[in-house]
Amino acid sequence: MQFKCSVCDAAVEYDPTPGLGAMPSGWRVHEIHGNNLLFCDSCGRPVHFDGGLSPYMKSLLRTRGILV
Ligand SMILES: [Zn+2]
Questions:
Q1: Is 68 part of a structural domain of the chain?
Q2: Res 58: pLDDT
């Protein structure tokens, strides 16, 4: 199945495999304002989320219409 980043539209083909994880390596889901968003290994780096959303990530999410 295809995983597509909610922020930058990066997409990978990945088949969830028992024991290897439900998502591609480094990808993660964050809930933002009630929406479960999928983040790729780049957008999902902890630096963007430690202590709240980083200014960079906020501006990206605004560009996508996810944040207002
Ligand atoms: Zn991304």
A1: no
A2: 95
